[in-house]
Amino acid sequence: MTQTRSLIDENGIRTDGRTGNQLRDIQIKVGVIKNADGSALIEFGKNKIIAAVYGPREVHPKHMALTDRCLLRCRYHMSPFSTDTRKNPAPSRREVEISKVIREALQPALMLEDYPRATIDVYIEVLQADGGSRCAGIAAASVALADAGINMRDLVSACAAGKVDDKIVLDINDTEDKEGGADMPVAFMPNHKQITLLQLDGKLNSEEFIACLNEGITGCMKVYEVQRSALMQKYFGNETELKE
Amino acid sequence: MSSSRRSTIILENLRKNQIRELIASGKRLDGRSPDELRPLNIEIGVIKKANGSAWVKLGNTEVVAGVKVETGEPFEGLENKGALIVSAEVLPTAASYIEPGPPDEETIELARVVDRGVRESEMLALDKLALIPGKIVYTIFVDCSIINMGGNLFDATSYAVVLALATSKIPVFEIIDEKVVDTGKIQDPPINTIPVSVTFARIGDSLVLDPSTEEEACMDARITLTTNSNGEYTAVQKGSNGFLTIEQVKSAAETAKIKGQELRLKFQELTTTGQ
């Protein structure tokens, strides 16, 4: 990617008014889908994404079942109205790949060995897309999995970092993703300090690579706080009420 | 829908344990050191009908890549650039468990990661491949056939694509009366850089470069890093069901840069003498 125009002004302010290490506004609502075993709605900047979890439940078709652990299935899908130009509803190659990397990002956190011969199905629907929908999707899905009461080692937080105007910045938005110099989505288990998703496209030298990775992980820690308080809110009410 | 059921060889637990124990002590079943590549054998220009081709043998893995050049409409949002399309197919010849049919998610991931390495490094100067900007551009197809599976398809496929492109001779098209005319002449494609992909498997606490089929069957996680001629990272993909620590990512990045440079020198030698 070669950048054609400046995306950070002389005061260090980005196209959407944020500073370099500032996240977009994040809101997570837990338990938004009545029929699902666990669910969450995340609003991450202009992203609006629903994650619903069904399971552990019986596997169909049955031959897909695993004898020693639970099957994990994941679908990332964008609604046709979620983008500037209508998106064909049939799954694209991009969505197939993202479904796979999201599943692989969630799997290390799940105790799948606790539910042999069953399946856990994770559905992620992007209702409105901004940049960083895979990260927002992972954050929502991991909250939905916790909401479903699945045994987990940790939550999975996710955030992208990247390079814009030769500066490393946190949480790349749509414009920066399309016009900027690099985009690195990271998913991280905050308590185990383990990376479960790492992708990069763009150009980074060694120092920038390390800086970008660290920035991404810092972002994940901030997203983790929002995930945690959303779950606390649902299960324990807000803290002021608790004290009373 | 993506499923955690993987199509791979069945490896006995005893064998798995043997591989894991060996790797934990810094050794590998085939006698390689942790950051040693299997024998790499490359033949260039094996497919005469293609505009460029390469047949890569990396250990037991065999991949043929062919370049075909046509003209067509540009991609949306990239109106002034030539179109590059990288695809991959794992042929039913490749292993007993492969069946013919549309590509599965692993093959789609493979093609997209290889494509990302070539695209993001800007190996081809696509802005020099527009004929009528916004209307007609060069369309460059690189199709890969995996003819035998022996582990580490990512690197073998990437090397095949890069070498097929680097040694290709593409037709010179001209626009006469708003129509595309093939002049019958050929030219070198505009090459900026040589991207090199390097893949590691994490097995236990160790990283091993260029995993074989058996090593892949017992790996915990995978990471592929692509560097360009300036030693910059242009594409990364973590794969498989496990995690990586921050230190493991950093050490993989460091080794990928060094190994990438070694391989690049070898590729450059091949592309200058192989023509």
Radius of gyration of chain B: 20 Å
CATH class of chain A: Alpha Beta
Structural class of chain B: alpha+beta
- Major pleated sheet of chain A: 5 strands, mixed
Beta-strand percentage of chain B?
Answer: 25-35%
**Could you name the CATH topology of chain A?**
Ribosomal Protein S5, domain 2
What is the highest CATH level, the class of chain B? Alpha Beta
Detailed description of the structure:
The complex is a heterodimer of chains A (244) and B (275). By secondary structure, chain A is α+β, with helices and mostly antiparallel strands. Chain A is built from five helices and nine strands. Chain A has a single domain, classed as Ribosomal Protein S5, domain 2. In chain A, helix 2 packs parallel to helix 4. The N and C termini of chain A lie far apart (55 Å). Chain B is of the alpha+beta class and 275 residues long. Chain B has a single domain, classed as GHMP Kinase, N-terminal domain (Ribosomal Protein S5, domain 2). Chain B contains five helices and 14 strands. In chain B, the strands form three sheets. In chain B, strands 2, 3, 4, 5, 6 and 7 form a six-stranded mixed sheet that branches. In chain B, strands 11-10-12-13 form a four-stranded antiparallel sheet, sandwiched between helices. In chain B, helix 2 packs across helix 3. The N and C termini of chain B lie far apart (44 Å). The model of chain B has no long low-confidence stretch (mean pLDDT 94). At the A-B interface, strand 4, helix 1, strand 9 and helix 4 of A face strand 1, helix 2, strand 13, strand 14 and helix 5 of B. Strand 9 of chain A pairs antiparallel with strand 14 of chain B, so a sheet runs across the interface.
